[in-house]
Amino acid sequence: MDATVIDQLAQRVDRLLLRYEELLRTQSLLQAEVQRLAQERDRLRAQCRQAQARLDALLHRLDQQEAAP
């Protein structure tokens, strides 16, 4: 094999390794973002459940007031 071909292959391998490392970093960042979004989703779901419980309690009190003589 010609030295030029070997050098070209070595450069390509180096570029592929850099790209691989870049993709690993990107994957790590994306996984962290997914985790953050899942936590936010869970927090918002909990807030919705709390709001629903408060609304249900208010509606129940209104029903009781309407039923009272």
Automatic annotation (TrEMBL):
Coiled-coil stretches noted in the UniProt entry, renumbered to this chain: 6-68
Source organism superkingdom: Bacteria
Keywords, sorted A to Z: Coiled coil
Protein name, per record: TIGR02449 family protein
Q: Which organism is it from?
A: Tepidimonas aquatica
